[in-house]
Amino acid sequence: MWEAPLLLAAFAFGSPQQPPAPLRGRVVDPHGQPVVNATVQVTAAGKALRPARSDGSGCFLVATGASGRVQVEVVDQLGDRAAALVELDGDPFLELRTAPVRRLAGSVHDADGAPLAGAWVAAVPLGHPDLEAFGELVQTAADGSFVLAGTTFARTAVRAWHPDHAGATAEVAAGAVAAPLRLQMASDLPIRRTFELREASPAQLAAARLELSLLAEGVRLPCPPPLRMLAIAEGSAWSVRGWPRGDAMQARATVPGAALDPAGAEIHGDMGDMTRRFFVVTVANAPLQGRLVAENCTLPREGLRLALRRQHESWIAFRTDADGKFASPVPLPDHDRFELRCLDPDFVLATETERHAHPLLPLAPHPSWSHDPDRVLEVKVRKAGAVHARLCAADGTPQPGLEVVLLDEARADIALVQPRLGTVKLAAVIALARSDADGQVTFRGLDLSQDTTIGLQAIGGAAWLETTIDVPAAGPIELGSLALVSRPPLVGSVEDATGRTVPGAWLEILEAEGRVRSRVIPVDRSGRFTIDVMPGKVWIRVLGSDSLQAISDPSQPIVVRP
Questions:
Q1: Residue 384 burial by Cβ neighbours in a 10 Å radius (0-12, 13-18, 19+)
Q2: pLDDT tens-digit profile of 337-366?
Q3: Residue 164 to residue 109: CA distance in whole angstroms
Q4: pLDDT digit string (tens) for 442-456?
Q5: Residue 223 to residues 123, 235, 243, 249, Cα–Cα distance (Å)
Q6: How far apart are CA 382 and CA 399, in angstroms?
Q7: Neighbour-count burial for 53-88, b at 16+ CB within 10 Å, e otherwise
Q8: What is the pLDDT of residues 524-553, one digit of tens each?
Q9: Residue whose C-alpha is closest to residue 235's, from 207, 202, 260, 186
Q10: Which of 198, 483, 540, 550 has its CA 20 to 30 A from that of 164?
């Protein structure tokens, strides 16, 4: 399986400050059919927003009034769930596919076997980072009992935490039926994990906060409220007691107006009591000094909105002055790498390196530099490109929820070992989006070279499209209505060694037509599934299995076995 770097996935906590964007999307079942009247709940900054419901086409809209990362949870009328973690960056449109869920009940006991009230029980599906959003968190009742009402059928890690006990762990196998769980706290002493803040003033110590990620097999568990955004209780360190010793813990410390080195720290599992340290950067000339250099464009009189991010940290927004000069709001460690991006979609920061992303990554990276406090960084800025189209069926019906990708037209032979797909022809990805409820898709803020050719691919709704686009010397690209070509979806079932279907299993679908697509989908309660794929070869596996099954003729029903 192809996986993103763990630390990057675990610490993608924030996005630049932008005007609040509505969240639009569509709810579909395991066969891609619209789910009507499903409840859509969005949680932003720990606060549940007013829920919405999907309409007759499965579409919904939530006026979030928020930015940054939000949790989206969907429950349909059968009790099946969909979930996603989403960055409200721009105006996103989601497609959420519901999955069958099961009820896990149990109880937590102390080391002597007595019921333990007030313990926190967290559960998360294992096997793929995308399933993290399905995590659940509950607290035990007076008799130590708990119920996890919406757990998927995937293999699931269950963890119990209480600060005065050594923690308990359990794993629930994939499948539809699970016996009641009995979680008993370990008999040894609770481990203590300490994160110390060095070279900080008393005011900085008082304002410092620690954000934790609790990991089971590299997948992040829901964090109990007592462990969220910790303040330093005394001295210069945070202390966390009782987390199961076999699991890893990652932490990110923040101090308003200051930079820390390192940006994040990790304590691996089975290491007992451990201490990790953060250092406040105190170099007087550490803030980044820079200047925008206009390339064939005129800068706005009021300046441009930029955002800066150190590796694994949140974006911090700020403005340039009318002359394009800027200074970072926080200091940066010498030689530390950082990224810059322009928040105004009409302009783009030009990178002097490769223009687009590596073919294996879904989005183009932002320009990055190594910090040198003794120089003024000059950054070229140019007018951004834009592409707009309306995607429809042959009869003109708008097609919502389609995956639409812009690609560099040039393709190269790349040998993929993880995932094991052999040699495939891939192109660099320029941008990725989904069509909205009216079939409209708009790409803004693009760094496009003039007088070149790029490609557009779209897939979904039992149809697909691939076309080329000539980039003009100036102005946005208006493609008008684009009709997709009908294409039968890939259909099949998951069966065990005896030939019985496996309800609620999860599959990973891999494609490499132009770019690598890695999608994780659930099967329904009868063990069947439907998924749209591009023309070309398809690879498929049951989540948790290392066996990749190559599909050379996706037009025929298939049987997938672990």
A1: buried
A2: 888 989 888 898 876 544 444 555 544 457
A3: 12
A4: 999 888 877 789 999
A5: 10, 24, 11, 11
A6: 33
A7: ebbeebbbbbebebbbbbbbbbbbeeebbbbbbbbb
A8: 999 999 999 998 889 999 988 888 899 988
A9: 202
A10: 198
Query: How far apart are the C-alpha atoms of 54 and 61, rounded to whole Å?
Result: 8
CA distance 99 to 54: 16
- The one-letter amino acid at 254: T
Locate 23 and state its tokens.
């969240």
Residue 111 and residue 106: Cα distance in Å, rounded? Answer: 16
What angle (nearest 5°) sits at the alpha carbon of residue 5, between those of residues 267 and 64? 95
407 membership: H or E segment, kind and range: strand 403-416
Contact 529/507 with Cβ under 8 angstroms? yes
* Residues in CB range of 202: below 8 A, 6 or more apart: none
With 0-12 / 13-18 / 19 or more C-beta atoms within 10 angstroms meaning exposed / middle / buried, residue 252 is buried
CA 56 – CA 541 distance, rounded (Å): 33
Separation between Cα atoms, residue 119 and residue 123, nearest integer Å: 13
Strand partners, 424: 414
CB–CB of 156/172 below 8 Å? yes
Q: What is the value of pTM for the model shown? A: 0.86
Cis bond before residue 163 (omega within 30° of 0): no
What amino acid is encoded at 221 in this protein? L
- The alpha carbon of 406 is separated from its chain's Cα centroid by a whole number of angstroms, namely 20
Specify the 3-state DSSP secondary structure of 422. Answer: strand
Place of tokens 């999307």: 25
pLDDT confidence of residue 14: 39
Distance of CA 396 to the CA centre of its chain: 33
